[in-house]
Description:
single chain; about 250 residues; 4-stranded mixed β-sheet; 3-stranded antiparallel β-sheet
Amino acid sequence: MDIAPSGRGLNRASELIASKRLLRVFNRVGRVWTDRTYNDCAEVVIVRDRDDFLDERFTLPTPETAAVKFMRAEVHDINRWTLRHAIFPFLPDPVVAGLMRGKDKIFVNFNNITYRRIFARGQLDKGGRFFGGWWQQTPSELRPYIRIDDEPTVELDFGTTFLTILYSQRGLTIPSEPYDLGINPDGDLRKRSVIKKYIAARLNARKLYSLSKEELALLGVTGEKLRQLVEQKHHQIADALEVALVWT
Length: 248
């Protein structure tokens, strides 16, 4: 074998390139999906927190509660299901190779096909998103080409998830355009993305949060004005936006 250490120091996968007799064997056999073993004892409910002073994350012991046992069993069931099926990108080899090598700083490890639930704020009533599947690192424009057992897939996108859930929990009706603050009349997707990020940070951040000067310049407002516009738009849930205030 010729070894091309393309990932050395670059957080990329190293490549093993077959040559001569081995290459002929590979060409004759082709791609074969093999069974994967699964560790039912692996911890799949992870609790993490952050030391803001040291700017480091650390893992906490996972508590043994009834809720954790239920979540753990649920994640194990999902993982056993994914391991029984061939989940792969129906894409040309050069595109797949580019993802594996970290082209455009997007590195996809196709060996990652199981999930973990990670609670990143130190407690089980905050967070808990699923992480692990290689498809989560795949660029959105390539996700329509993901197949399961050679069957096409469809990605379902739930818009304004955070706000929708929060309004629903309080029995309120969410505004029809929750990211329309009156400063984006042309519907610029870049501006909408910045407003969306800011509102998400106001709902989730644990400390003071501000947009960059470039982002505020794009919106054409000051940090204080943006804060006022968001709180006017979502005055019904203003208390949920008080956790993180903007620097002005």
